[in-house]
Write a structure and sequence with these properties.
The complex is a heterotrimer. By secondary structure, chain B is α/β, with parallel strands linked by helices. Chain B is built from 17 helices and 13 strands. Chain B folds into two domains: about 160 residues, Periplasmic binding protein-like II (D-Maltodextrin-Binding Protein, domain 2, 3-Layer(aba) Sandwich), CATH 3.40.190.10; about 220 residues, D-Maltodextrin-Binding Protein, domain 2 (3-Layer(aba) Sandwich). In chain B, strands 6, 7, 8, 9, 10, 12 and 13 form a seven-stranded mixed sheet that branches. Chain B has a four-stranded mixed sheet with strand order 2-1-3-11. In chain B, α8 packs across α10 and α16 runs antiparallel to α17. In chain C, α6 packs across α8 and α13 packs antiparallel against α14. The chains are: A mainly alpha, B alpha/beta, C mainly alpha. At the B-C interface, α1, β1, β2, α3 and α11 of B face α5, α7, α8, α12 and α13 of C. Chain C: Its main location: membrane.
Chain lengths: ~300, ~425, ~270
């Protein structure tokens, strides 16, 4: 077996190993993208932020500047504060389970199974379907009727989306079902980068399956872990479509997340200014968490 | 602040429109799929295109009347799009917020929701319809639903009632001869249904708006029958949810649950499941608004199996009141360039013939009636009440859009046993004061 | 040998359990309402395709398919062109400014879309692009650029610099070096960029609802959900609508799956 990992054929010139690095590409390479990005994302976001300091209802001309009042309201808003807790719980559950399941699936289909190609396709396919459609489907799967859906299959009597102490986890389950395949392919990418020789060497040294995973595979999976944790954390914190379609934040406030709160404030309660303040807090929150995560995980990648 | 923002946009807008023209031209040459915005009709004259955005319930009557209108007035073309309420609310609020409203759009009567007549008219976005003849005949009791400061801003074809949609065959099988007329009779009926092995009342409380209907069905009897001016007192701060018949209504709601009169897991059951339970005879009845009768009929093997009766919220048949609210309607954008054509279409909807057609399609009681008006036989038992023992749906008089969603949420919490009536009413009072 | 066999059995069992929701979806879409309430879990007996016929005509999916395809394809071309060029610059430039620019792009991944929703709508409306394909294409190109740039930059950073340098020694300009030498090397990550963006754009529901609603240029999800909203109480019909709405993207995925998953694997190594 020849190692194929970094084995793409290099052009002959590369062999000369000149200590000469071409100048960076000119700025106009980035300019068109920057213009479109600034127009569609940055400019609207920055002008949107202005509303966070107003009492605008979302329609009409009446608007006055209220300073930081919206942020003070947020601190005293029981419902919004509760939603932060839900958002965190949901994110932790999704990150842990989606990546745990994704890793196990990746290890499974990485082995030399006859059905591996088919299995990969099966596990990845929910990723391509719209989250709202998946939520519609799962709403049926989760229906409390003991003869239908998941209850019918497992012989249970659980009120998956109607019981406030279960609903949040049911949503997490639905998200994990859809995206475990996504984590799986990223881990697979990492696994394919682990040279087989290392395993063989470790086997000769008498290492067991677990030990080989722990000391050979796991450290080399670090970059895949970083990407997976980051993407699933951001996805979890910003999760909206699935919650909105499955429970709309209910029963009561049991599955209300920051995203559904800011949505309702803007479009149901007619408090656009306040909603923007919540959106701003969410954005800072996501940015802070992902920065800390990347910083910590990149360090692990280096030391691992 | 406001003016500053708006002024800045004017000049920027002109610039961008120019840029947009370029981009669109480029796109048009690139894939030549850019839509034609003005259509031409047979006579070769340019047609005015009226854009309408509505909720799914409006599709049947609107499509029918728009088609008829276009036949009589070929220079107008109406392009309508429909979506479920939440989605319409989101897209319309975005368009209204950005100052780009469709010519005609769905409006909810009265106040109490972000898409309600009062909230949108206050922002100056609805055209005044007061000059149209039909507005002169709006029954006095319905005026608050149509008017703000004496001006009419919304068209609606009539009213619907909240009551029990029941399956006649199931009632017969359980040995129930006549619909109940007092609360104790109502409980007795539920008991009989339960003994007959069906769920007496199907409740699809996972769908948020369904949660409110039982309270709405009871509150007219427990609150308004005793104090018809309750709304005004509450607005003036002299009355509250916590110290009123609302408490009795909530207690009655939970009594139904305690006695096991609902299906299992109402919080996990959707409106759709509720509908099919009653239609297929797995449940005896559902407390619902008459506007969804067509949904129940569609799901039933024989539509005639279904009928309605008023929910008696009092032990004296004479003090039973019912909720009768104006159905969701539409308004014209005040700022659109086709405002006059849009108003002309609404004027057409205001004709008695159109009102009759619209009302018939959604089983509503027509706003005004003539010899050719029809009233769905299922709601006939409500007619004796509509004169002086009916009140509009409660949210139509609430001062802001927050009370109603709080009501939904606290009912779900109560059904889940995660809250008490005291806490629930306190939350509603807090939302009312916001 | 026996262990591999055992693992194979376990994985197949997991896959079967994993497919249960899909089974429910398809089997319900092949049942009439009577069958659904009598035997929700059983196989459809006999299967009926009536739901598909009604769903297809009621949801008017034909024109929507064309709209979705045009918007998705043009946006993807724009994203790949703009994204790969920008990423090449960001991955190779050494200055602090270049790094700052990279971070600026990444910011787009964390921003909640609700933040700029109304100003963006005003902008597209000022451009006169509401209700047009061009407006949607502009929107998707902008909104998906951060993720596209992120994927490309990571991959290019891991690519030895020598390729382009070598070409340049041979006298090629930056532009030629990129298009002739570097871009072909990006094929794996381009596959990833393609599928992830295609999935997002094809499935997006909210923006086309707001921007295209009532224009006669609705995309597939908008048509499907308008349909679903109207027939909510008929699960068989609704599920047939969902299957029809998901089918095009699933078919494309299945046709390209070998390439997609491989590209994904090698693409994300960077």
């Amino acid at each position: 077996m020849t190692p194929v990992t970094a084995g793409r054929a290099r052009p002959a010139h590369a062999g000369r190993r000149r200590r000469f690095s071409a100048a960076a590409p000119p700025w106009f390479f980035a300019a068109p993208a920057l213009v479109v990005y600034a127009l569609v994302v940055l400019y609207p976001a920055v002008s949107g932020v202005v509303y966070a300091f107003t009492d605008w209802s979302g329609i009409g001309q009446d608007m006055s500047f209220v300073g930081l009042a919206n942020f003070r309201t947020l601190l005293g808003d029981e419902q919004a504060m509760g939603s932060i807790g839900n958002t965190l719980l949901l994110t932790v559950a999704i990150v842990a389970v989606q990546n745990g399941v994704g890793l196990l699936l990746a290890l499974g289909v990485h082995a030399r199974l006859k059905s591996r190609a088919l299995l990969r396709v099966i596990f990845f396919s929910p990723v391509v379907v719209s989250p709202v459609m998946v939520a519609f489907l799962w709403k049926y799967i989760y229906n409390p009727d003991p003869s239908a859906g998941l209850n019918g299959l497992l012989g249970l009597h659980v009120d998956w989306l109607g019981d406030p102490s279960v609903a949040l986890w049911s949503i997490a389950g639905m998200v994990v079902w859809q995206y475990a395949g996504y984590s799986m392919v990223i881990f697979l990418a990492g696994l394919e980068g682990v040279p087989r020789e290392l395993h063989e060497a470790a086997m000769i040294d008498g290492a067991g399956t677990f030990q080989r995973f722990r000391y050979v595979t796991w450290p080399l999976l670090a970059p895949a872990v970083t990407i997976n944790l980051m993407l699933s954390t951001i996805g979890g914190l910003k999760l909206f479509d699935q919650v909105f379609a499955a429970t709309n934040g209910g029963p009561g406030y049991a599955t209300e997340t920051l995203s559904t709160v800011l949505y309702k404030q803007a479009f149901v309660f007619g408090k656009f200014g306040y909603s923007t303040a919540v959106a701003l807090v969410l954005a800072l929150f996501v940015a802070a968490v992902s920065l800390v995560q990347v910083y910590y995980l990149r360090r692990r990648e280096v030391t691992a | 602040m406001t003016d500053l923002l708006r002024d800045a946009r004017l000049s920027r807008g002109q610039f961008l429109r120019m840029m947009g023209g370029l981009a669109a031209a480029a796109a048009a040459t690139a894939c030549s799929t850019r839509p034609e915005t003005t259509a031409t009709t047979g006579g070769g004259q340019a047609a005015t295109e009226l854009k309408f955005i509505g909720v799914a319930d409006q599709k049947t009557p609107m499509d029918q009347l728009a088609a008829a209108y276009q036949t009589s007035k070929p220079s107008v073309r109406i392009t309508a799009s429909y979506a479920p309420t939440d989605q319409v609310q989101t897209s319309l609020r975005t368009q209204l917020g950005a100052g780009n409203a469709p010519d005609l759009h769905v409006v909810y009567p009265g106040n109490g929701s972000a898409m309600s007549m009062t909230q949108i008219a206050k922002a100056g976005l609805l055209a005044d319809l007061s000059a149209q003849a039909w507005t002169q005949t709006i029954p006095a009791g319905f005026k608050p639903a149509f008017q703000l400061d004496g001006k009419t801003y919304i068209f609606s074809a009539g009213s619907s009632v909240i009551g029990a949609v029941y399956n006649k065959k199931v009632f017969e099988k359980a040995g129930i001869e006549a619909p109940p007329t007092t609360w104790s009779e109502f409980l007795a009926v539920c008991d009989k249904l339960k003994k007959a092995g069906v769920a007496p009342i199907a409740l699809g409380a996972q769908t948020p708006w369904v949660t409110q209907l039982i309270t709405y069905a009871l509150v007219p009897s427990t609150v308004y029958a005793k104090d018809p001016a309750f709304d005004d007192k509450q607005l003036a701060g002299q009355a509250s949810f916590a110290d009123s018949g609302w408490r009795d209504a909530m207690e009655m709601y939970l009594e139904l649950q305690k006695r096991g009169f609902f299906n299992d897991n109402p919080n996990g059951t959707t409106f759709e499941q509720q509908t099919s339970m009653v239609a297929t005879g797995k449940a005896g009845m559902a407390i619902q608004v008459s506007a969804v009768l067509p949904d129940f009929r569609k799901a039933a093997s024989s539509p005639d199996d279904l009928s309605m009766f008023p929910v008696p919220g009092a032990d004296d048949a004479n003090s039973v009141w019912i909720p009768a609210g104006v159905v969701v309607g539409l308004g014209a954008s005040a700022k659109g360039k086709n405002a006059e054509e849009a108003k002309a279409f609404i004027d057409y909807l205001g004709k008695q013939e159109s009102i009759n057609a619209w009302a018939k399609a959604i089983a509503a009681i027509p706003l005004t009636q003539d010899a050719s008006s029809t009233i769905d036989p299922a709601v006939e038992s409500f007619l004796p009440f509509t004169k002086d023992r009916a009140v509009p749906f409660m949210d139509q008089r609430w001062p802001n859009a927050e009370v109603q969603p709080v009501h939904f949420a606290v009912i779900q919490e109560l059904l889940a046993g995660k809250s008490t009536i005291d806490e629930a009413l306190k939350k509603m009072d807090e939302a009312y004061k916001k | 040998m026996r262990r591999t066999f055992l693992l194979e059995i376990v994985m197949i069992a997991v896959a079967v359990a994993f497919l249960f929701p899909v089974y429910s979806l398809v089997s319900l879409s092949l049942k009439d309402p009577g069958q659904i309430s009598r035997s929700p879990l059983a196989l459809p007996d006999p299967p009926t395709f009536d739901n598909y016929g009604s769903a297809w005509s009621a949801a008017a999916l034909g024109p929507s398919l064309v709209n979705s395809t045009v918007i998705t394809v043009v946006s993807l071309v724009a994203l790949i062109a703009l994204g790969s060029f920008a990423a090449y610059f960001l991955a190779r430039v050494q200055s602090r400014l270049g790094y700052g620019l990279y971070i600026l792009f990444l910011l787009g991944i964390v921003l909640p879309f609700q933040l700029g929703m109304i100003p963006l709508y005003e902008l597209v409306s000022d451009l006169g692009l509401i209700g047009t394909h061009a407006g949607m294409i502009l929107f998707y190109t902008g909104i998906q650029l951060p993720f596209t740039v992120f994927l490309y930059t990571g991959f290019i950073r891991a690519l030895p610099r020598e390729y382009a340098s070598a070409a340049q020694i041979d006298g090629a300009s930056h532009l030629t070096a990129f298009t002739r030498v570097v871009f072909p090397l990006l094929r794996p990550i381009t596959g990833t960029v393609l599928i992830l963006n295609a999935v997002f754009i094809w499935n997006d529901f909210f923006t086309p609802l707001v921007y295209l609603g009532g224009s006669g240029f609705e995309t597939v999800p908008v048509s499907v959900f308008a349909f679903v909203g109207q027939y909510v109480s008929d699960h068989g019909l609704v599920f047939a609508g969902l299957v029809l709405g998901a089918l095009p993207i699933v078919v494309v995925f299945l046709a390209l799956q070998r390439y997609v998953i491989k590209g994904f694997s090698s693409g994300l190594k960077g």
